[in-house]
Design brief:
single chain; two-stranded antiparallel ribbon; alpha+beta; about 290 residues; about 15% strand; four-stranded mixed β-sheet
């Protein structure tokens, strides 16, 4: 089943000493670009977090935001990082001076900053912090996946409809081309006859030249390849990974075949159908940019 790169997930996990909230947002991108915005207390888990996101998200611009809310009971087991507090106060004083304002940082505002707390050695919350954090991340990824799957299903329906339209147009092109093949042959013969009016040329040679032109204008090979591309494209709807890249590549191949048909044909009706196919392929290409 195809997945969209667009999605959102949020989860809150609680433990004995803390609540951790995680939000994950994902939009389309050529590759996987991960941007975590987490408290400093979680920096030690960055590598493991990146691996988890890479495994589950595959592609897209993924932003993860996290906040930690320590319970009151846990704060009794925390010591204040006075060095960090002094840094915040110093920055606040610089802002006051630059803006020439009397507004100052309050103790209540400082206490909301998770970076000012450090666990006592006897009350080390590292394992609890890690477990609670990754539980929240996994739950948020599950929510993200639900939206990605739902959006992917909507994209699939639209692409299937457009692919059927392309298939219908290609069938009409094949039919129109076949119906006018005899007329085209006569027209090519008439053109050559007019061009070599003053040149002596036997009928057999004339027919050979007409056949050569007709072969150059023949689009049967392009029709066969288009049919093959359409058939293969249909199998990508059930691909688990990199369906978007495969679809995008196949759309390029379809576009080449359609462009060749457009350059070969002399029939107005076929030219109009070629425009319709190109229009559908372009709309499909826009949708595919959002598929993993």
């Amino acid at each position: 089943m195809i997945k969209s790169m667009t999605g959102y997930g949020k989860a809150i996990c609680a433990s004995n000493n803390m609540d951790i909230s995680v939000e994950i947002k994902s939009v389309n991108s050529r590759y996987l670009d991960f941007f975590p915005k987490t408290p400093r207390a979680l920096n030690a888990f960055d590598d493991e977090l990146s691996k988890l996101i890479k495994k589950n998200c595959v592609r897209g611009r993924v932003t993860l935001m996290c906040s930690i809310d320590y319970h009151e009971s846990a704060k009794s087991g925390l010591t204040l990082n006075m060095e960090k507090i002094r840094e915040y106060v110093k920055v606040a004083e610089v802002i006051q001076t630059e803006l020439n304002t009397d507004i100052s940082v309050t103790v209540d505002q400082l206490m909301k900053l998770q970076e000012i707390y450090s666990p006592d050695e006897k009350d080390d919350f590292t394992e609890e912090l890690k477990e609670t954090f990754f539980n929240a991340v996994k739950d948020a990824i599950a929510q993200l996946d639900k939206i990605r799957n739902a959006e992917g299903n909507n994209l699939k329906k639209d692409l299937e409809t457009r692919l059927k339209n392309v298939e219908t147009y290609v069938s009409q092109i094949e039919l129109k081309s076949s119906e006018h093949r005899g007329e085209d042959f006569k027209r090519y013969k008439q053109r050559i006859t007019e061009l070599i009016e003053d040149v002596s040329l036997d009928e057999q040679r004339l027919l050979q030249e007409v056949a050569i032109i007709a072969e150059k204008k023949d689009i049967s090979e392009e029709i066969v390849r288009l049919g093959s591309h359409i058939q293969l494209y249909n199998t990508y709807f059930d691909d688990i990974e990199y369906a978007g890249r495969k679809m995008n590549f196949m759309l390029q191949e379809m576009g080449r075949e359609v462009n060749t048909i457009g350059s070969k044909t002399d029939q107005i009706e076929v030219s109009h159908l070629v425009v319709s196919v190109k229009d559908e392929l372009e709309k499909m290409r826009e949708q595919v940019q959002n598929i993993i």
